[in-house]
Amino acid sequence: GGVGGSSANAGGSGGNGGGARIVTGSAGATNITSTGTYNVNGLDINILQYFSGNSGTSGGPSDGGVGGTTSYVLGAGGDGARTLFTGTNEVSQSFTTPSSSFENYFIPTTWPLDSLKATIRGGGGGSGGTGDGGTGWWAGNGGDGKEVQVNINPGSAGSLRVYVGGGGSSGINRTGGAGANNGFAPGGTGGNGTGGGGGGGGGAASA
User: Fold this and answer.
1) Which of 13, 11, 14 is nearest to 61 (CA)?
2) What is the number of other CB atoms lying within 10 angstroms of the CB of residue 188?
3) pLDDT tens digit string along 21-33?
């Protein structure tokens, strides 16, 4: 609003043009006064153009002044205009160290979460043994661990447990390799050969 007049028949001066601000959740409002990068609740927002609102006109002895329009989008007099962020911000986190103990994935709470997806990949199998052929024979490679992708409804959970399974051991000559003994469930031992090489150990399950 304008400043009051110095006498009873003098109008008040017009109010200054309004600024801009970013409002996000519990972090409150961040005032925008120029171009630049503003960190709002952990999210960097880059303001490439900034235009402050136009000032209102001064009031007369019997008439109030007129509110200024926004300088860029020409909204209604006196009202600001806002643009809501409509893009997406995709954040990923990986757990890659095999262990029999679980790790915690903490569901983000600093911005609205549209969806949550997990990619779960088990440990791969070990390569086979060389069998009776010794150094002149070559063992086959172990297979990749199976992979599934799951859409998760986080509900009210604050975190999720993550188990990472390791790869199985290779076979030695005709003896099967040991299965990985970690992750959510251990892998099986590879079978023994009778001339050909033993099978590679199975990879552990991830969850």
Assistant:
1) 11
2) 17
3) 777 666 667 777 7
Instruction: Determine the pLDDT at residue 33.
Output: 76
| DSSP structure string for the chain | -PPPPSSTT-PPPPPPPP-EEEE-GGG-EEEE-SSEEEEETTEEEEE----PPPPPPPP-SSSPPPPPPPTTT--STT--------S------------SS-EEEEPP-SS----EEEEEEPPPPPPPP-GGGGGGS-PPPPPPPPEEEEEE--TT-SEEEE--PPPPPPPBTTBPPPPP--SSBPPPPPPPPSSSPPPPPPPPBP-
Average pLDDT over residues 93-117: 85
pLDDT for the residue 184: 87
Predicted confidence (pLDDT) at residue 11 exceeds the cutoff of 70: no
Token readout for 194 is 């009778």
66 or 119, which is more confident: 119
Structure tokens at 109: 């709470």
> How many whole angstroms separate alpha carbon 201 and alpha carbon 174?
13
In terms of phi and psi (left: phi > 0; alpha: psi -120 to 50; beta: otherwise), the region of 131 is left
Token pair 């095999």: residue: 98
